[in-house]
């Protein structure tokens, strides 16, 4: 059993006050309720966060790295229960070992029309994880925070539509889009971000766009 680190306590204390970028603000009366689990733990290489690589066979967000999560079902008590359930279904993470700290403000994903509540948690008693739902998940990674904040792993990605956003190259994954924006915000608000060069820009690979656009 490990204690919640100070930086995560500070993040949790201000989570509801974190500003939501205009592009992620939910529109009134639209969107399906969903939740993701931002599960931080103490791994063999220091503090880390749990990410999944979505299946390339999926219908939405195919092949994208993401936080475990999904829709809030009618039988769920709310976004926290949904996030824990989805994480267990997708990665095998035992919810009994997870200490939920807080939720962040709701964020809107235009492409999938989801209103997503990020749930911030500490992995009090880590359990073994794997791609527990092969139809939805190709792989599971505990990504060290040190690798995420390494300036050499950070870039800006430009989409064919002309928009650009933060991205990370870690563990053989290109983390971009919604997940990268949330990680970028959380690392900065937690005081973990290291100076990096936001002018280092790459084009979003066409094969990534094609997979992510699949319906």
UniProtKB/TrEMBL annotation:
Q: Determine if Hydrolase is one of this entry's keywords.
A: yes
Q: Which domain of life is it from?
A: Bacteria
UniProt-listed Gene3D superfamilies: Nucleoside Triphosphate Pyrophosphohydrolase
Q: State the InterPro entries in the record.
A: CoAse, NUDIX_hydrolase-like_dom_sf, NUDIX_hydrolase_dom
Keywords in alphabetical order:
Hydrolase, Magnesium, Manganese, Metal-binding
Q: Domain Nudix hydrolase, which positions?
A: 29-170
Q: Where is this region: Disordered?
A: 57-77
Query: Which cofactors?
Result: Mn(2+); Mg(2+)
Please name the Pfam families in this protein's record. Answer: NUDIX
Protein name, as recorded: CoA pyrophosphatase
What is the protein's species of origin?
Nonomuraea antimicrobica
